[in-house]
Structures are given as structure tokens and as C-alpha cells.
């Protein structure tokens, strides 16, 4: 399938949807992003690529980084990971402490902040230099050695990170954070500040559509079964408390970030990444969801 | 693909899993079911069928009936249905009132009891004889005119139905139940008491794998897009508060009932129904989930 | 102490507080009450009485009736009552199901609706004619044989009583309602519809200020210790989710009703009843709380 | 009234209640306390004192310190304090984050940990040396210049204080903590580590029974009205999620600490402090509550 026409069609049809969401404003570095940015990149498992708009401009990947840290830890330590994190959807906000307290410090899933902090803690346990480790892991995945943290964003996050610090301290009080809180938070804020383009993200996530393998080599990022399971998690928990709506409208496993990016996977076919900074009230890209909805409607590529 | 060998393999491998769950005991008619019953039926969209064990013995479909009433109402009244019911997962038990009160009487989704009562209420609004209507709808779907309510089960449910009556009264207090409570509850208890075999259920649900169409005619049960959306709902909400676990282990849209049945859909391919009465702590068939996990593992038919 | 001047002072000072609350509107019989009604009656244990304004006009006592049914049951069956109802404050609305579900059907206290329904159920268990029994109990307490149910109010409550029916059904599902739901609800709606004046209520509740005894005879309504305990319950749970505010501003055990009445007790001294139909957002009399606050400020009769 | 006989009677009657609770074990300094310690001190407003057992041995006052910091701040800044803290009971544990999140960072009352942290933050805002300030405030109240922090306890609390750090960070994220988190936590852990005897505590709290004044001078600690209000708060919120039980059994305003101390106030009469280290499941002194129950039963000094 040639996706060029489809991307052009999407480009036209999403126009009226700009101006209806709000760019994340909790830190200056995000608040100052041009709300009209819009990019899409498709990476197919046969190697073909399709790009539209600002698809090569790096943006703050934020929570999309949780996919990478999860994949890394899951491959390293396997199923015992799930003694410390659940796999069920959360019905609270992504940074809520309510369910965490009810569940005695076991985060509902690895994509809410509490769960992601536990995953990052596991990386800190295993790696001498966890921050560089994460960066290198992602660089390799997308074959782009220039991927970097945005120090200013990480610094801003840290200065405003009281809610995440509350989560980390709560986890620690339940003995579900093993490394020093400051180290885990520092690593977490750094991973969220990583900047990647739509193209980078589609390259990096291709293994999720390709049975766990990268495109140009036979390197295994996840096993065949692990890949399916990570996709299932993205489907069930990838868009915070809007997973039902995303499954309904788009019908693909996906992961969003407050930078306005969404990565979605068509298993066995392709990865598509959208970037549009304006967010809806759930913290997901307003135009991004619309673009992905158009994509599966036009291509009939929903997994359902 | 010839599924005969696979069914035989599953049959062997599930043996050690019997005796670990508990048959539903809240009404005698369910409590007295033989816990060792086990059946599987696969219905493919090319017309092929595969059956194993007690696949032609009728059992109480219970909550699986919610798929049929939802499909019926969704096709009749379309998207305005969603002003009265949500499409997000619930993190409480299937019969909980907590989220319903927090959400001011809008059930989180149509597969928890509160949501199913609203759907049944809509049928009661539209149909003169809602109970016969539902029966005929299902009979037609599975080409089996002998499908019947089990009056004894319905009667038992009604006598022990205080929790559902609490839900119905709460919905009514929020003006989200339009017909008389007694009528809605009576219809609901009847629909849950319907008895079908694995074969019946796989026949009846084939439209979910077949773009909304039945097998042997061109009759549209749901539109192409509606079909995908109902599948997405089953994925996100079909197994109560175990949707993450089911997506993780099985990777298919599915709907379970406390009678021990689970229907799962491989979009574009087939429907598979399992029956094993012993339930896990979440009220889903213990052996049934294992059997379906084996099915997608052996066939690689997970949608992820 | 001569309370005449104090009542006159209160009368003057509450004037600016009218028009700021809202008369209960969920049933016509309450919605049509003149919002400017205002009465106070003080009954002292030495027999002196003080009255102001509309103090002899009957109004709907609503939840104040819960004090009478509790006292009756507590005296009859004693402490075993507390196996079915708690004695802690509720932090949800008076008609909430959330805590009831969390606590497996044991209401947090006897003054929220769920708890009052259990108390009424106990009366229905013990008495052949529970409705007449309650009426006679209250008539005797206030030496007024003309106290009656308002059938129209009871009927309206029943027709709009879905929320209470939800509570009753939930309690039944937890086996914490023994008599038929319809009987308990009918009795409950009737008790809430009873009409009494401020004078009647101060007479009837005098035993709470008088160590459990009525004024003119030596009849024991509650034992000395039971009386203190019921007062403590009113302090901790008598004004729904405004108990802290009431303790802070008024500093007396009290019980309110959506008819706009509040009964407050100065142990060892007197009972004071206020009636002003406009309610604040918590369902308590807006002017009534102000009047009682003035009373304890001017008389220094707070128990603290 | 001569309380000597009554104290002796209590001493005899509480014997069988030892060994049924558990000494606080979350830090070694508390875990090593002798569980059989038992002391009572009564300080009357007429200057008489009564002491029993280990009434002059200092112990860790823990949450009882919250009464002192509240009184101090309330007298300094008055009612505007209540824009940052509520006055209603909490139905969660004393260190819960659930209600705090639901209420957007406004603690339910000043006696749960979150509320106490806000009060301590206010002291940190006002005072150059908040820790010394608190110490001096208490020293003056009880006329004992030897009152000290226990540095070891404070250090242990700090090392295990992740839950309080979670609360502080959450408050900060809601902008309801103005000073640096570390300073507020350090001050809070210090105030909780203060050691006082029953006699010290009864001396120090006498103003609560004496209309806001200390015994031997005319110094005003709180105004007449403020005193009543602080007593009302202790009644409604002083024993965590056991306030109903304490009101029921004891019938006095009180404040407990996990060191095993409880201070209770008979307004206009006396203050009674009990110390017995074994705690019930709610974190309140098991024997202490029994002793106070006996006290009000034998003296009829309940406020109800």
C-alpha cells in the first residue's frame, strides 16, 4: 500500500482540528512549542517510509520513553518484572496516587507515572550509568547517534516534579523503589526529556510491528511473544484514562506523551508516529488522535 | 489452517488446570453444573467449523448476552447510545456501584452490569416484547430456533438479584433508566439465563469476525466500522477487571460469562468459544482463559 | 438563664442570612414551603420553655426522625445493634453508596440513609405495625397525640425514592436488611414524612439533655450511659459531611433534616430546635446553623 | 472531686488489657519502649494535680505535638489558616494520600499528617528558627525548660519518612507548602520526637480546659472562642479514623500519638493524660482508651 495519498488526505482533513486543544504548559520549555507543528512518519517492516510535515523535527518524547524503558527491562529480567508492576488499566489520572495507595504501592501498569518510575528504578539497579544506558538503547533502536536529552526540559521537570517526587516517595515507603529516590527521579526526568522526531520514533519502535526485530539486522529487541505482550499493554494502558476512546476511534496499540507525540503500531505491518502539540483534556494530542483515526479509517488497518 | 490438531493439543494441555477454580455458586442452577465440562467450538468465516468435547451442550451464557444486546441497540440507534454509557475500562468489580456514583449514573462501559442494564433499558424502550425480541435476535444469529431462556435460572437470578436491583434503582435515580425498573430487571435476568452451546455462540458471534455480516447470507448485523468498534470494546472491557491479563495472555477481543463461557474473536478469521465452568477470582473461566492462551500461542493468531 | 432576650437577639441577627440557601426541591411538598419560615423552641430540663416565630408550626422532620428510631432500637436491643451499623463519621454524601460498598454493606453510622434504613429494618423485625409504633413512640415523647405522617410527602418520597431503594437493595444483597425491602422503605418514607413543630421536637428530644428521662415522669427512654452515647453520635455524625463545621461553629450535638429543622442538645441543660427551610450545599439549614452558632456564642453553652 | 481513688480504681481495672495491643514498630526507638509502661496525670484548673504510675517519665509525644503547633499558628494568624486546611473528619488512615488528592491538596483537618505538615509549614514561614520556636512554646506551656527533642527518634523518623515525604511533595505540587520541603519535614520530624511526661502534657494542655489561659498567670494561649474551637476539632478529628469510637466510649475531646499517649480535655475542669505504649489497629493506645473510658464512666465527666 502506498501511503502518500493517505497522508495527504489526513493532512487536509485535520486542518479544522487545530486550535481546539492546549499545549502542555506546566514547564516553559513545553509551553513555548509552536502549536501548529504537525508531522507524521510511517515506517513499514518492508523498509518503506512515508513522511509528512514536521516529521523530521525533534520534539520532547515524554511518556513515549516509557515504551523503551519497559522493553529494555522486560527483555533483561523477563516476567519477574510483574511482581512489582501490574498490567491492568488505570481509571485515574496518569500521576494519581489514589490507586497506588489502594494497591499498596504496586502501580496498576508500567505506563502510568508510578509504574514507569518502578521500571526506571529497575534500570538504575542494573546499570552503572542508567541515563547514558537509556540514551544508547534508544540511539541504537533508531540508528540515530544524535538523540540527546534536553537538559533544560529535564531541569524544568525536576524543579516542578513534586508530584513525581510524591509518587517516588510513596513507592519507596512501600519498598517498591530500590535505588535512591533522587537517582530514580533524575533518570526519569532525563528519559522524559529526550527529543526525537516522528521519523526517529517510527524507526525506533519498528520492532513492535516486526515481531521484536529491528529492520536491517536480525537483532532481537524483544522475543516474538514479548512483543505481542508489550503491544497488548499499549492497547490496554497506553493512553492513560482514554484507552477506550483510542481503541474505539483508532483501534491500534499506541503510546502518547504530553509533548504531543503518539506512536501507534500495526502489528506485522508498520509503525506510525504523529506529532501535534495541542493536547485534549486527557493529556493526549488532540489532532494526533484525529490523524490516527483517519489513518485506520482510510486504510482499514485497525487491528479489530 | 486445520485446527483439529490444535484443539487436541489444547485438550491435553489444559487437563492439569481443572479443579483450581470454583463454579459460580450464587444460584443453585449454576452451582450444580458439572465442573469438568469442557468444550471448544471454532467457526471460521470460510464456513469451516471445529469442535471439541462438550461443544454442543447448552450452558448459561450470562454476561455473554451483553454482546448481543449491545450489537442490537448499536445497530438500531447508532452513536447516540454513547450519551448514556461510556467506553472506558472499569477498575471495579462488574457489579460495583462506586464508579457509577462517581460518574453520576453513566456506566463506565456496556459490559459491566450497570452498562448492560442501560442497554437492556434501550431495548425495552424500542420493543413491545423485549424478551422475545432478544431471543429471536439471537436465534437468527446462530440459525438455531431452539435457543431458549432457562426460566429456573432467571427466577433464581431475580430472587437473588438485589445487587442488580441496587444498580437499576441507582440508574433510575440518575434518570438513566427510562422504562420501569421491574421490566428492565426481568428482561435482563432473562437474557442472562439464555442457554447456548459453544457451537451456538461461535455461530452467533461470527459477524464480529466477518465485518458485521453473517456467514450464509449478506445480512448486515453491524456495519464494517461498528464491528471494529464492538471488538475494541470487548478488548478494553470484555473481561471485567481482568482485561489487561486477558489481552496479555490471549491477545484477542473477548467476552466472558459466569456460566464459564468465553467468546473470543480473531477479526477477519474466526470466532472461538470455550466453555469450562470453574471460575477464577475475577469471575472468568479459569480453564477457558488457559485454553484461549494456548490457542493464540499455538496458532500465533493474537491480534498483536 | 432567661433565653427570651437571646432569642430576640438571634432573630434580629439572622435576618441577613435569609435568601442565601435553597429550599429542598426534590419533591413538590417540600419545594412549596415558604422559605422565610423561622422558628426556635428551647425546652429546659427544669421545665421552662422559650419560643420564637413559627415555633409551633409543624414541618417535615425528615432525617431528624433517625434520632427517634435509633433511640427506640438502642433501648430495645442494646449494643448488639452495632454489629450491623458503625459509629464513625462518613465523608460521603448522606445517600452515598460508595462507603457502603467499601465496607461490605455495614453503614458507617445510623444517621446516613443506609444506616437509618438498617435501624428501620430492626424496628420492622420487632414490631407488628412498625409505622404506628414509630408514630406512637414519638407522640408519647412529645406528649402530643396529634403528630401524624404526611401521606402526600411519604408518597412523593416513595415515587422519587430510587436512591434509597438502591441503598436498601444493596443492604439486602449484603444480608444487612432482614425484612422485605418494600416494607422497610415504606416505613422509612413514612417516618421521614412526620410533621412536628420546633416545640414538639424540643419536647420530644428533652430526654437527650436529661440523662435519658422525660420531663414530667420518671420514664426512662435511654439509660444514662446510652444517652451520652447517642449524643456523641449526633456530634460525630449528625450533620452529614458537615459535622466538623457544625462542631466548630455551634459546638453541640445536633441532628438536621432536609425540611430545614435542626435539633441540638446542651447535655444537662436543654434542647433547642431551629427551623428555617433554606438549605446550604450540604443539605443543612443555612439560617438554622447561623442561629445555633449565635445561641452558643451568646450563651457560652457550647460543650467545648 | 478527689481523683485519687478513681485513678487507683482505673489502675486495677486496666490490668487485663495489657498485652493486647502492639507497640509502634516502624522505628527502633519506639519499638524498644517497655510495653508495660502506664501513667496518668490529671491537672485541674484549680491547680490540683493527680498522678499515677509512670506519669513523670518522658515519652515520645508524636502526633500530640500537632495540638501545640495548631494552637500556636491559630493564635498567630487566626481564621485565614482555614483556607489551607479543612476541619472535617477524615475517613482514611492518618497518612493517606487519597483524600488529599481528591481534595486537591487541601488536607481534611490539621490532625492528619498532611494537615499537620501544612501547619508546620506555616510556622516555618513565620519563624526564623522554627524548631527552637516550637520547643520554647511547649516549654513555656508546661513550665518545664528541660523539654527536648529526641534527636535519635527524629533521625529515625527522617530515615523512614518516605510516606510523609510523599505527602509533603504532594502538598508542594498543589502549592500548599510554601517553605522548602526539607525544612518542613525536618521541623515536623523534630516536633514529633519531643519527649514529655503525662504530667508535662497535662500541664501544657491545661489552657484547653481553662478558656485559653494557663494556670498560674493570665497569659492567653488562645482566646475563649478559639479554645472551644480547638476542642471541637480534637473531638471531630483527634483520634484518626476512630473518632466515633472515642467519642462513644470516652466522650471527651482528645489527641493521641503513636508513642502511646492520649491527652483528653474536660472543658472548664481539667486535662487528663494517659500513657500506655501498646497501640490498637488504629494506632491509638489500647490501654489508654480503656483508662479514659473508665475515667468518664466513673466520674461522669463526659461532655455528653
What features would you describe in this structure?
The structure is a homotetramer of 304-residue chains. The radius of gyration of chain A is 18 Å and the shape is globular. The model of chain A has no long low-confidence stretch (mean pLDDT 96). By secondary structure, chain A is an alpha+beta fold. Chain A is built from 14 helices and nine strands. Chains in contact: A-B, A-D, B-C, C-D. Chains A and B meet through α12 and α13 of A and α11 and α12 of B.
Distance between the termini of chain A: 19 Å
What's the oligomerization state? Answer: homotetramer
Structural class of chain A: alpha+beta
CATH evolutionary superfamily of the largest domain in chain A: DD-peptidase/beta-lactamase superfamily
Helical content of chain A stands at: 40-55%
Largest sheet of chain A: 5 strands, antiparallel
Number of domains of chain A: 2
Mean pLDDT score of chain A, rounded?
A: 96
Q: What is the CATH first-level class name of the largest domain in chain A?
A: Alpha Beta
Radius of gyration of chain A: 18 Å
Please list the strands of the largest sheet of chain A in the order they lie side by side: 3-2-8-7-6
Number of strands of chain A: 9
CATH topology (fold) name of the largest domain in chain A: Beta-lactamase
Strand content of chain A: 5-15%
- Any guess at the CATH architecture of the largest domain in chain A? 3-Layer(aba) Sandwich
Most extensive interface: A-B, 35 and 35 residues
Total helical elements of chain A: 14
Q: Helix and strand succession of chain A?
A: HEHEEEHHHHHHHEHHHHEEEEH
Low-confidence stretches of chain A: none
Amino acid at each position: 500500500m502506498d501511503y502518500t495519498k493517505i497522508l495527504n488526505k489526513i493532512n487536509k482533513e485535520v486542518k479544522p482540528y487545530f486550535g481546539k486543544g492546549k499545549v502542555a504548559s506546566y514547564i516553559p520549555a513545553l509551553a513555548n512549542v509552536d502549536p501548529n507543528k504537525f508531522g507524521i512518519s510511517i515506517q513499514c517492516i518492508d523498509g518503506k517510509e512515508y513522511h509528512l510535515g514536521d516529521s523530521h523535527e525533534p520534539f520532547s518524547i515524554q511518556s513515549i520513553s516509557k515504551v523503551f524503558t519497559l522493553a529494555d527491562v522486560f527483555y533483561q529480567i523477563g516476567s519477574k518484572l510483574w511482581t512489582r508492576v501490574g498490567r491492568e488499566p488505570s481509571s485515574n489520572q496518569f500521576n494519581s496516587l489514589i490507586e497506588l495507595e489502594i494497591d499498596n504501592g504496586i502501580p496498576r501498569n508500567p505506563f502510568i507515572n508510578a509504574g514507569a518510575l518502578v521500571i526506571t528504578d529497575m534500570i538504575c539497579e542494573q546499570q552503572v550509568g542508567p541515563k547514558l544506558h537509556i540514551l544508547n538503547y534508544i540511539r541504537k533502536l533508531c540508528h540515530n547517534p544524535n538523540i540527546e536529552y534536553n537538559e533544560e526540559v529535564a531541569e524544568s521537570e525536576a524543579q516542578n516534579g513534586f508530584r513525581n517526587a510524591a509518587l517516588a516517595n510513596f513507592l519507596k515507603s512501600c519498598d517498591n523503589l530500590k535505588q535512591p529516590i533522587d537517582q530514580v527521579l533524575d533518570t526519569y526526568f532525563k528519559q522524559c526529556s529526550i527529543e526525537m522526531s516522528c521519523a526517529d520514533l517510527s524507526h525506533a519502535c519498528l520492532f513492535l510491528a516486526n515481531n521484536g526485530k529491528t529492520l536491517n539486522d536480525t537483532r532481537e529487541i524483544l522475543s516474538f511473544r514479548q512483543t505481542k505482550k508489550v503491544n497488548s499493554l499499549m492497547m490496554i494502558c497506553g493512553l492513560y484514562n482514554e484507552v477506550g476512546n483510542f481503541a474505539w476511534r483508532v483501534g491500534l496499540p499506541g503510546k502518547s506523551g504530553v509533548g504531543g507525540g503518539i506512536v501507534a503500531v500495526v502489528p506485522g505491518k508498520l509503525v506510525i508516529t504523529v506529532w501535534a502539540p495541542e493536547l485534549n483534556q486527557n493529556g493526549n494530542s488532540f489532532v494526533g488522535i484525529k490523524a490516527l483515526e483517519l489513518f485506520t479509517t482510510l486504510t482499514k488497518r485497525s487491528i479489530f
